[in-house]
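Justification of resources, computational component.

The compute hours requested in this renewal are based largely on the per-chain cost of generating structure records like the one below. Each record pairs the submitted sequence with a full structure-token output. That output is archived, and it is also reused by downstream analysis tasks.
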Amino acid sequence: MGIKEIAGLLGGLFTLLAFGTYIWSILKGPTKPKRATWWIWTMNSVLLLTSYRAEGAQETVWLAVAYTLGCITVALFTIKRGAGGWSQLDRFCFGSAIIAAALWVIIGPLATFITTLVIDLCGVMPTIYGSYHDPEDEDKLSWVLWFVGGLVSLMAVESLFTPTVWSLNTLTLVAYPAQITITAGIIVWFLVRTPKNQLT
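The structure output for this chain reads:
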């Protein structure tokens, strides 16, 4: 097994570990996942997994597999232990995910992948907003692990380190773990920063 295969598996394992700690934090009480985010991610993760795999993802596919399993589990927990309702943005993103499923059939996996990636980004917005205003509702350790999982998965994209051979396929394989790394990094930053009311 090569380095990129190991990196891909480690990215998936870090992500599963993050979901485990997040679910434990939900059960303990302090974490209140945003319902809209996790239900949008559940629908999206299935579409992302199928389209991402169809576009050639191999080593990095474990990240998508881990997110699909984890999102479904967390979404179910939000029914009784989640926070927030459904804003206009949330409903728009959910409806867009349904459209993305139709695009898979009509146009193909690349169009679906791009569409669901954008929707996935929209889906995380309620959690980014919440992590800034109500950081106590999120679990720091889980988001750090998601950040690490995305970063390690980027290491599995071999052509990432040879810009002279970059192609559309390279950008496709990089897009998903890069988005996870960036958005999780933003959330981690908000969760570890000094609260405004503690500034002197």
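Residues 196-200 have pLDDT under 50 and may be disordered. The radius of gyration is 17 Å.
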